[in-house]
Design goal:
The protein is α/β, with parallel strands linked by helices. The chain is built from twelve helices and ten strands. It has a single domain (about 5-335), classed as Alpha-Beta Barrel (TIM Barrel), CATH 3.20.20. The protein binds beta-D-glucopyranose.
């Protein structure tokens, strides 16, 4: 081989390595988002002020049932702020950590990917300046605790930033938190969502650190709100007057969902970020036919746009599982897990 051919080969090798590097940047986030696939929120358990207070105590069998039914992952809403000291160093209660360890262990032993989030940190929504330091310190402890877990354990910084935690403040706080988390978890996948309750309409305001590829962007979807939140007492009395609202799947109703998801998909493509639909669901006060129809349509649209998704939620008000009678609500389960594009009538 003469010297010029050797040089040419070397240049080709370098180019192919660079090419490979360019193409693999961010691939991990995309491939893990695929693995998250179809999932469920274990709602109303660990994000209650105390587990059990909202009627749900997690059980080993729940994880087994979820896996057997065909789901790929779970999202675990957690109220860390209620289980940590109010003052520095804001130590998280070791017993509470053990409980979360238990959820992670049982998810992994059932081959479920698991998202550990921070939920209902109400104080930070009212007074972000006073709680930013505590928020970061809580995440430093969580990151340290789970730094040796496999890639199938993911972190989500904060459920539904809103109120005084506006877009600018949230962009700054999530960037600072990421910097700290990266010290112990250099390439763990982290989920971050836009402000105003993870509203996809706020994606344009979301700013993520440009040099971090291991991020999945998460959004929530409860539109039309008067349908999904009819009779939802925690939202307010006005929801009583929404009772009876149906979702029949008219062209207009479907187009609204499609347009919203196309917008999120476009944003993901422009920013080279995979998208997760971290919450969607309809309250049990709505009629079952409408719920199943809406759930199926939203889940299939999300899949068509390449989003992973997590139904809100397992066995409370929106529940797909009836824990008292130990059985799945079949129309909802079918709406979620069915592979067909057919919509229920
Ligand atoms: C909240 C839940 C609520 C659900 C639907 C979630 O983000 O944390 O408390 O039930 O949204 O409103």
């Amino acid at each position: 081989m003469n010297i010029n051919r050797k040089k040419l080969l070397l240049v080709m090798l370098v180019i192919s390595c660079l090419g490979c590097f360019c193409f693999t940047a961010g691939d991990k986030a995309f491939s893990i988002n695929k693995k998250l696939g179809r999932g469920i929120n274990l709602g109303n358990a660990l994000e209650a002020p105390k587990e059990g207070q909202w009627g749900i105590t997690l059980r080993k069998e729940y994880l087994e049932l979820i896996k057997q039914a065909g789901f790929d992952s779970i999202r675990v809403p957690i109220r860390w702020s209620a289980h940590a000291e109010k003052n520095a160093p804001y130590t998280i209660d070791p017993n509470f950590f053990e409980r979360v360890d238990w959820v992670i262990d049982n998810s992994l032993s059932n081959s479920l990917y698991v998202i550990i989030n921070m939920h209902h940190y109400e104080e930070i929504f009212n007074d972000p300046n006073s709680h930013a330091e505590r928020f970061i310190e809580l995440w430093k402890q969580i990151a340290e605790q789970y730094k040796n877990q496999p890639d199938s354990v993911l972190f989500e910084f904060l459920n539904e930033p809103h109120n005084m935690l506006d877009d600018d403040k949230w962009n700054k706080l999530s960037a600072e938190t990421l910097k700290e988390v990266r010290k112990t978890n250099p390439d763990r996948i982290v989920l971050i969502g836009p402000g105003s309750w993870n509203n996809l309409g706020k994606l344009d305001k979301l700013q993520l650190p440009a040099d971090d590829d291991n991020i999945i962007v998460t959004i929530h979807y409860y539109e039309p709100f008067q349908f999904t939140h009819q009779g939802a007492s925690w939202i307010g009395e006005q929801t009583e007057s929404w009772l009876g609202t149906k979702w029949t799947g008219t062209d207009g109703q479907k187009t609204a969902v499609i347009k919203d998801f196309e917008k999120a998909c476009r944003w993901g493509k422009e920013h080279n970020k995979p998208v997760n639909l971290g919450e969607f669901g309809a309250n049990s006060k709505a009629d079952m036919d409408s719920r199943a129809r809406w759930t199926s349509f939203v889940a299939r649209q999300a899949e068509m746009q390449g989003f992973s998704w997590h139904y809100w939620e397992f066995c409370a008000y929106f529940g797909v599982y009836d824990k008292d009678n130990h059985k799945w609500r079949q129309p909802l389960l079918k709406a979620l897990i069915s592979d067909s594009n057919e919509q229920p009538d």
